[in-house]
Amino acid sequence: MDQMNQEAVKYVAGLIERARKAQEAIEYYTQEQVDELVEALVWNIVKDGPAQEISKMAVEESRMGNYEGKYNKLMAKAKGAVRDMKGKKSVGVIEIDEEKQITKIAKPIGVIGALIPCTNPEATPTVKAAHAIKGRNAIVMSPHPRTKKTNTYIVGLMRETLKRFGAPEDLVIGIEDPTLEISNELMKQCDLVVATGGAGLVHAAYSSGTPAYGVGAGNAVVVIDETADIKDAAEKIRISKTFDFATSCSAENSLIIQKDIYDEFLDALRKEGGYVVNPEEKAKLQAAMWVDGHLNPKIIAQSPQTIAEVADLSIPDDVKFYVVPETGIGADYPFSGEKLSVVTTAFKYDQFSDAVDLVNTITKFQGMGHSCGIHSFNEEHIMELALKTKVSRMNIRQGMAPANTGNWFNGMPFTTSLGCGSWGGNSVSENITWKHMINTTWVSRPFAPVVPTDEELFGNVMNK
């Protein structure tokens, strides 16, 4: 082991020791004590003053997104997480099944190791810490180096709050100078990894030898059928696609539009600030967005005007996002993949079965298990898409970015981490919340045996 790795091992061991000691101090907190801590932690982030400072710092440090997006995301996701946790049992007996005589008891996992992406440095640490504390865990957060100051500021506010409420400050620890070696070591030494980031990071989490929750790659695809409210759909797509300049992995990457309304829908997108590129502009945009097969960092989560400068395009000042007509899917057609930018791709379909096939083909290329959506009032179409696509979440008549991770207008659990199931190389296909940060003891009591007959079990087949 080289010196750098030895130093990382020693450094992380010290953090884990501190976090474990803090966690042990609250292991037998009451539900009321836990809930007070969770609410205090989040309130002292989202209240006036800190919330604005965090949002401003996140934009300046990451050089991605915009202030309004950061602020609104922090407000929605952090407050929503508290709403979802309020009144929910996470201490002691959390469920009793009288029929099966099973009692379920929640217990802490221990020390959570959380990896924080630079695309979401404001809401992710806030929500992850709140979820961890709800389960009476400690959490050590390793941010992307690009946004380490934002993470340090948030952690500092949380530690001040913990101290003021009589809890150990080391329940929340932030790594101030993260390195790859330190992040890898954190994943090895903690009790559970919650990894939000790119495919390489998630793979490292699952390879660490520690239980882990990872996220899958995004590439959200949305169908617009002939029954859609065209104006409403176009507006929601614009709001979602331009939110925080598309830092969200949930933003609409491809639109699958029924051929009879295709031109009308593109016009509706234009009225919302969409700029439909011509073939020459498409070629220039593609050359600017992908360098050696990888997304160019210069266009990720940037304004449409910045992208125009990088791509040498001339666009009107009021353009809010780009629309790229496309017919192909796969590596030779990169616009069919995830773009992490205010650029969406438009495909045309004839029969609805064609739309379903397009969704599956696109997500098979990138984004398996993540999400899709539909703007439709045809219940048969809605259910066909839901039944025949390999995604973990599907939104109906909603913008994907605000909907996937929970919002006030839907029932999705508020989160900043989206499990994508086995399709996306993940262990769960749910929105990752505090419920994934507890261990559960099942207590079984005996009752008189109830043994079914063979006829009850196999009566439908035994005489065939």
Could you give a short description of this structure?
This is Sulfoacetaldehyde dehydrogenase. This protein has 16 helices and 17 strands.
Low-confidence stretches: none
- How big a fraction of the residues is strand? 15-25%
Estimate percent helicity. 40-55%
What overall form do the CA principal axes indicate? globular
Pfam family, one: Aldedh
Protein name: Sulfoacetaldehyde dehydrogenase
InterPro entries: Ald_DH/histidinol_DH, Ald_DH_C, Ald_DH_N, Aldehyde_DH_dom
Keywords: Oxidoreductase
Textual characterization of the structure:
The protein is 42% helix and 16% strand. It has 464 residues and is of the alpha/beta class. The chain has a seven-stranded parallel sheet, with helices on both faces. A five-stranded parallel sheet has the order 5-4-3-6-7, sandwiched between helices. The protein has a three-stranded antiparallel sheet with strand order 1-2-17, with no helix packed on it. Helix 14 (379-388) links the parallel strand 15 and strand 16. The longest helix is centred in the N-terminal third of the chain and has 24 residues, at 3-26. It is globular and about 65 Å long.
